[in-house]
Amino acid sequence: MRGDAVDEVLKRLPYSWTADEAERVGQRFRESRPAAPRRLVKRLWQYWIRMSPDEPLFGDTEDDLALLLHARALGLEAPGGDPGPEDGPIARCARRAAEGAECGPLFPAPPAWGPKAALAPQVRAALPSSLLRAWVAGDDQGPVEVLVVGEGIPEIRQQVVQAALTTCLRVNGLSDPDSGDFVGDHIGVGLIRVTAGLSGAPAQADIPSVFRARSVTVADGASSTARGALRDFVGLLRSLADETSLVEVVDLAYADLLAYAQGLRALADRAAGETDRAFLRAPREEDGGPVSLQPYLRTVRGHGASLGVEFSPDLFTTDAYLRVEQAHQRVLSQRLTMDARLRLDQLETEIEQLTADLEAFHRANEEERRGLWPATVLLVERFDEPTGRTIRLTEPEERETEQYYQVNVPQLISMREKWARRMGELVEQLEAAVHRPHAPARQVAAGRFLDAAVRGVVPDESPATERAFGAWCKEVAPMLRFEWRCALRRHGIAPSDVFTAHSVLISRYLPPAGEDPALLFSHPYTLVDPARSAVLADAERAVMVVRDATDHAEPAPAETTGPTAAALWDGLAELAESPGVEEEFGRRFLEALRAQPEGIARRMIEALQPAGPTAAEADAVEVALRTAVRHTSLGEGMDRALMAMRNEAFLTARECLDDIRTAPQWQARVWLLRAIVECRAARLESREIPGLLGHQMPGLPDAALRALDEAGTADEEFTRAWLETLPEAGLDKGIRRLFQGLPRARAGCTGDPLNKVSAEREYAVWLFRRAVENARLARQLDEAGEELAEHQEAVDAALAKLGGALEEILLGPYVGGSRGAAEELFEVLSGQEPPRYGRVAGR
Length: 843
Prior knowledge:
The chain is globular, with a radius of gyration of 34 Å. It is α+β, with helices and mostly antiparallel strands. Helix 3 (38-51) crosses helix 4 (61-73) and helix 18 runs antiparallel to helix 19 (582-595). The N and C termini lie far apart (79 Å). The strands form 4 sheets. The protein has a 5-stranded mixed sheet. The protein has 31 helices and 14 strands. Residues 337-364, 774-801 form a coiled coil. Keywords: Coiled coil.
């Protein structure tokens, strides 16, 4: 029966098949394994459970078990791990599927990675490492490929994974449509590889894998942009290395990487040609060489250059996997694109506002400038050019208005325009990558989850993604492991020679595009360190074997021999007293850490940790804090009241102003702000308030009139001048003038001689308290955010869950550094931007 005849049989329901037709369909399943399509598996599975459930379908235990595993992996109804007391062939297959010998883990359990392993000189690259090590391969034009090894700590890992995904999508957004559609980048657990995808023969490594070094190449005109994207990623890694020492970056020549890959290929070819000999490339301590990711090369002829297995791409069409992919894309790819769009929109809005303000200042004559603009401008934030973000200043700064508009504003516009161009390009690249027919974002996600499923690790993602991955992995992992065992058995390869502690699976997945069918290949790769790895090429093993220290790692013994941590620490303390021993001290300190990492770290903490405050010191700090709160009452209270008014929390705004205790010359400004609050609370339009207040026209609330009377009593001259200029200046500039010259925290902390509190101590205590409060509020907001559902939630429900944290962050004391992010979150949730009063862009 020809192939098209089998297809005709598959179109009919299984109960109508003849025995001969069923046998032909079963033969098609044997021939297509492990890439059996879902349609074939579904029809054959239905035939077995309905027409002959009491006897083996194939008479071959391997094929029967394979059919059960494929049915389960493809989302069909099949017995789980606990099939019950039945003793039929299907139940027996289900019990075999739960056995480790057939479907259990292929990879060895990852070693427990503690401080000894992180400091061990025997290992430079390890997947479970708590330190991230990056090898940057480049040429005279910049980086070409980046390999990052290690899981790292969660805070570092999150930044690196997101930056790697952004880089991958940017490069694939520049890819040449006429080139190959496969994405060779890998963003997995413990290993990340991203390349610039450059076109041209010199940029392609002659590695005998299915997709070579990189299948997607960028157009020649976009090569510099692709290198720029990779350069941004390398820049993040270098900054993390400088700031945390939890990342190490090593530069190497791309030509050396190509030469080493060619050397491994020559070694495999030699072993395949001389079957009576084995060739060993031992570690070379004196020559570090490039740590690289290499395919498992075949050492026999006639089976391809590298080891690989083809699977059915239908594995990525099941409901279970689609839930994984949707959760992943929502948290990573879609969020990255949305973040880029929001940053671009914010930059464009700020450019428009600054440009309009600058033009208005230039159009005004000298008399109008004196009447409409104050003599100085209060700067409360600055634009950080390296990151392209607006940062709130710890302490506001004053600038002369003329200088601000002649120097600061043009610089701000120029910097924001440069970043807007960059963000515009980034949005275009991300959008192109997401909407390409070959779906680079889907390819990267598929490779990430397929590798994790077979290796038995869980990607560090959102809780929803982890739950969905766990459910999908439970169904698909047994089939993948079983088929890999069968494939290795057919080729005479021992699983332990391929699946090691330094191996990963790189997938080549292509979604269907037009009439082109989907494809899925899986290839094992290994980390090779010339200074630490032994490479064996032997025709009898049928594949190149790589061994390093992680293959022999064992848990550290509870009690180690040699000097105790106390003795080592005492020796270091004695050595530190000697002159000119910096180099020796560094060497011995590292040796002590390697020998007794936990004990030495504990001694370090004890030596560096300051003693706790005494009761008298605690009382002194409390007195300094009360003094600081009293002296900063004016600035903090006005800020909080303005913030509350902007968010229409008028009761809170009144309470903030009522709590202010300040000198009489500043009390007038408090009352004038109170008058504005009362007008807004009475639902007067912002454009009407200046005229009503300035001329004290009918329609003003009684509470606002009383506030004006109190302001005139406190400072009649300032109140009169402010009211006269308010109608022409407008509400925004009127509020700015109320805040002009207010004593801020640094100037307000004048000390308290009566209680022996200096100004410096008072300010230091205030800063420390604000830092502690900011950390607490950030943690509180994070905890509240975890209560949000992963799917799109109604605005009122989201605000209810985040309301307490947002209220404290927006309106509570000591909130200077957290307001910006909280305001943006509030605007996103509410869908509207509150009015901006008195907000002046910084330098």
